[in-house]
Automatic annotation (TrEMBL):
Superkingdom of source: Bacteria
Annotated ranges, domain HTH araC/xylS-type: 184-282
InterPro entries: AraC-bd (IPR003313), AraC_XylS_family_regulators (IPR050204), Homeodomain-like_sf (IPR009057), HTH-like (IPR037923), HTH_AraC (IPR018060), HTH_AraC-typ_CS (IPR018062), Tscrpt_reg_AraC-type_HTH (IPR020449)
Pfam families listed in its UniProt record: AraC_binding (PF02311), HTH_18 (PF12833)
Record bears the keyword DNA-binding: yes
Keywords: Activator, DNA-binding, Transcription, Transcription regulation
SMART domains per the UniProt record, alphabetical: HTH_ARAC
Lineage: Bacteria, Bacillati, Bacillota, Clostridia, Eubacteriales
Protein name: AraC family transcriptional regulator
Amino acid sequence: MLTYNMDVTPESVWKRTTPSEAELAQPYYCTEAGVFYAQQHFSTARTDKESYILFYTLRGAGLIEQGESHVVLSTGQALLLNCRTPQSYCTAPGQSCWHHYWVHLDGAGVAAMEPLLLPGKKLTPVQLTGVKMQEYFEMLLGQMEHSTVDSMVTTGLALHEMLALCARSILAQAEATSARQVILQAAETLSKNYQKELYLADLLAEAHMSKSYFLRLFRRYMGTTPYNYLVNFRITQAKELLVLTDHSVSEIAQEVGFGDASNFSTRFAKATGQSPLQYRKRALKPQEGTR
């Protein structure tokens, strides 16, 4: 069952086609596609349809709901949805429009991509850059006016590339997330073991990365090198000890992992602009007007 409110502007496009037996045997084929310049009250609700639908937002945003999952599809985002279970989509609340491309597609190739594009069957928006997706949709709409073997092949390739764009973006994001977690773990190792003598080789072995790649990622996510991160963390701990204890500079140097008081004082002065004793004196000095 399908219900909808077609609040779209006249330049919107909705094309339909009936796939041939040859097309139905392809890994990717489509039955409908269009570009909707949807306005504020656009909405669609469907109980089921034997296909998938791929959206791509050009402007504004759409709200897409299926089961307990609901997402806002913003400008530049694409999303694959399996229409075999109830779903609804509309212009997102607070938005004046949702200009978007869409295509109903199916085939063994689409089904094979579903676990990646719908992980855990959860609606997953994909942020895309550039104009490739728009170009593929325009190619697709143009091919739907023909019924030739050439158009069948071109359509299948376009659908494949559209899904591949989404898949590559998801994989890149997953890789970036994984790499970030590795670096955060390395930073945590430095923080927890700052009192010990630490070696870059140990971090590399734990991260299973080359030295150059690890250092590049560490700077990207932490804003500095592992060595400077460790030094800054040790200095932060030293500041607390200088203020909260009466330990000597030599004792504090040992406690925070510098070992050598001279090295500690040099590093501390470089980072703070004052010696450890000057820092202690100024931190403990009563503020003017206080008693």
